[in-house]
Amino acid sequence: MAKVRALKSRYRCESCGHIELKWLGRCPACQAWSSLVEETESAPPPRASAKGVADGGGPVSIVDVQEISAADRMQSKIAELDRVLGGGLVAGSMVLLGGDPGVGKSTLLIQALAGLAAGGRVLYATGEESVAQTAMRARRVDAARAEVQLVAETDVEKILAHAKATQPAILAVDSIQTVYTPILDSIPGSLAQVRECASRLMQFAKTTGTPTIIVGHVTKDGALAGPKTLEHLVDVVLQLEGDGGPYRILRAHKNRFGSTQEIGVFEMRGGGMAEVANPSAHLLAERPIGAPGSIVVASADGARPLLVEIQALVAPASAGVGRRTSAGVDGNRVALLLAVLAQRAACGVLDRDIFVNVAGGIRLNEPAIDLGIACAIASSARGRAVDARTVVFGEVGLAGEIRAVPLCEQRLAEAARLGFTRALVPAQNAARLVTKSPLELVPVDRLSTALGEL
Ligand code: TYD
Ligand code: MG
Q1: How far apart are CA 144 and CA 129, in angstroms?
Q2: CA of 159 to the centre of ligand 2 (A)
Q3: How far does the centroid of ligand 2 lie from the alpha carbon of residue 90, in Å?
Q4: Cα diameter, the chain
Q5: Which of 105, 107, 213 to mutate to test ligand 1, by most ligand atoms within 8 A of the CB atom?
Q6: β partners of residue 126
């Protein structure tokens, strides 16, 4: 410990790289304000090699390097999580599990550790809760395993000392914002502490080959910037997202050992995070049949097709000017679609109150849902329900044209699997289809035509 403490701290300018031995409000080199960030003179962590472990050997031919096989990965037995990881945790890899506070990171982590504990003892260091609280939660979600060792600790040096002593198969630290290293004077959660602690943990992961999971609170816009700066350092960045409802989507924003196109879907229940293997069926379960303003879009999240219900309600404006409220979709996109509906499809509702909602409280971000939003609004405005076995998808352009979207076959297959019989699809997509569609296709190239086909 004394040796570690002897490391001197210094301050590096974020904008020009100038190094200063004491903190100054302004960088003397480039004059930028508040740009000096504390760091230590310790060596940077070793970089990842093929298996995520620094082997320290000399150069080898690329063809002689062995691939990571399924046997090299540790599974959590939570299929939705293992798939997003690329098949499981790789030795020596460092995973950042981010998400808004309260979204369920600690819950998912303890459940994952319970599964991973089948492969050996795991160490869970928590700086957020007491050992008793963590154990209580673990029991509640049926994740209390003898192989899971708990320690409530915030000093990263002590966490590493415990890890070195117990040699766990996996180390988990919850959360990176609560741990600190005494080498630095900055408070826990500061940029300097977050970076230094992560770098110390990284060094441990790479030199011992222990997969290390760190939890970080990251808001969607990255407002709590601390962990954002870790994204280049770690091997895998997982983000757990929820939009108010019970559903949680796990995404890999970065994965050095797998695809970032996979998503995992969970539902937060009383007994913890439950896997949702068939999210489309869940999301459509309570759909009102025959209600105007409700439409099913064949959306896709990464490479995974997802059928979701979009609801719109068009109501007389309470004040002179119409209000727009949207949940689960981008409000600017709704505003754009309202303008296109009015100008290109003779469906003017700009003077009314408009509410748009994605059922199930999930968030959709892709342009392929445009046609669904526009159709839902038109359906509500006309007071006419859309056929319950029709799905739609397509991007809407400013000229009122319907543009092609990726993953057409997968979207149609998912719709067919859930019993849909008819699909409004972009004409370009329909023309490019190589396999015969399992649904009756209605190719549309203009928004006005699409509304006529509903
Ligand atoms: P938590 O995992 O503590 O979130 P995070 O670590 O991301 O901050 O979960 C927080 C919420 O989840 C909490 O408000 C209660 C809820 N919850 C359940 O609904 N069911 C459960 O079984 C558990 C453990 C938590
Ligand atoms: Mg937590």
Answers
A1: 16
A2: 18
A3: 23
A4: 77
A5: 107
A6: 152, 174
Composition of the chain by helix, strand, coil, percent to 5: 30, 25, 45
Q: 380 CB under 6 A from ligand 1? A: no
- The pTM (predicted TM-score) of the whole model is 0.81
Mark residue 452 as left, alpha or beta (left: phi above 0; alpha: psi -120 to 50; beta: remaining): alpha
CA torsion sign for 244, 212, 179, 44 is negative
Domain 281-453 has CATH 3.10.20.30: no
Secondary structure (3-state) at 192: helix
pLDDT digits (tens, 9 = 90+) for 19-73: 888 888 888 888 888 888 887 765 554 444 445 455 566 888 888 887 777 778 9
Ligand showing the shortest atom-to-Cα distance for residue 102:
1
Span 73-277 CATH architecture = 3-Layer(aba) Sandwich (3.40)
Which residue owns the Cα nearest ligand 1 atom 18? 270
CB 86 within 8 A of CB 259: yes
Rounded to the nearest 10 degrees, the angle between the axes of helix 191-208 and helix 156-166 is: 10
Q: pLDDT for 105-133, tens place per residue?
A: 999 999 999 999 998 999 999 999 999 99
Nearest-atom number in ligand 1 for the CA of 175 is 6
CA-proximal residue: ligand 1, atom 15 (nearest): 102
Beta strands in 276-418 (DSSP E): 294-301, 304-315, 324-327, 353-358, 390-392, 395-396, 402-403
**Structure tokens given for 344:** 């290109």
The residue type of 243 is D
End-to-end CA distance of the chain: 71
Place of tokens 């539902």: 267
Radius of gyration of the chain (CA): 26
